[in-house]
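Put briefly, the fold is written as integer tokens. The lines below illustrate.
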Amino acid sequence: MLTKESLETPCILIDEHVLQRNIERMADIAAQNGVKLRPHIKTHKIPEFALNQLAHGASGITAAKVSEAEIMAEHGIDDIFLAYPVVSPSKIRRIIALAEKIRVIVGVESAEGASRLSKEAAQAGMTLPVRLEIDTGLARTGVRPDKAVELAKRIAALPGLDLSGIFTFKGAVFEGAGTLDLEAAGQEEGRIMVETAEKLRAAGIAIRDVSVGSTPTAPFAATVEGVTEIRPGTYIFYDRMLAVMGACTKEDWAAKVLVTVVSVPSEDRLVVDGGSKTFATDVQPGQHPLHLKGFGEIVGHPDAVFEKMNEEHGMIRTQGPHGLNVGDFLEIVPNHICPTINLHNEVYVCKDGAIRAVPVLARGKLA
């Protein structure tokens, strides 16, 4: 039987009790607001966890990559939304092949991308459900709400496609800027999407699905009348970033990175065996509006700052003598758990003292 002491570090520990509580709580939020829950599996990339989410109220899952969807379908998941503009001919053909076996919904955000999907779907003799992506303030992919009707009309006229809904991802953004007011951000997200859906319906386009919601905004966007679906992902584990946002408490952290102290250069500095090959670096310290100190929180050492890292080393500094020795274990909650999971081949699920390894089957899926 695996024990914490027998694990080779760095590795990711998952508290199964906390994970289960997080899954059930978000399912309750969706049910209480009468919306569907379609979690994004980019956070965990593990079929077992996705099936758990489905067993506890999710209506389907969301993925970003065709290869992620293929892995999930291989493990029995039959309702997948690809919330990403797929434009490469080879990937579209893979979507068509997948859609012959399970229900696949595809995100579109341009006339050219939709046209390419249309051509392949029509040639295959199928009607592929698609959703138009709306940019509600993140300024990433998606069409602006004031341009949505024009584009939606063009997509709706294409053969082989059924424009069934609209979707967005906005995150903790309000009036175009990062915010810690999650309720305002979520309410704005829901309101923009419902208003856009109403304009499309008035133009004769039968929009059925209005899909919104990141983990921090989903509980608030779900309360907006007319929203039909939320797509949070990180809620299954939560992370340091979401705790600082106020979207969770530290008791909700289901995933921690276990590292070993490999060097103690001084009484206020130490080095662990987790660097940029272990921890994601996309959420940098000091950025507005979170102003995080370091790359993660060292559990049990609130004054310690995970200052910097290179590939194999993580450098931590404390305000005073840390009292740690070479060989000691530390647990660190990363700023952003989703890309951190993607760096690991397996995670270790802990429940009542028992530990088991679970492969991250959909990690590293770039296409």
In short: The two ends are 36 Å apart (CA to CA). The chain has a mean pLDDT of 97. The first strand starts at residue 11 and ends at 15. The CA atoms of residues 235 and 358 lie 19 Å apart.
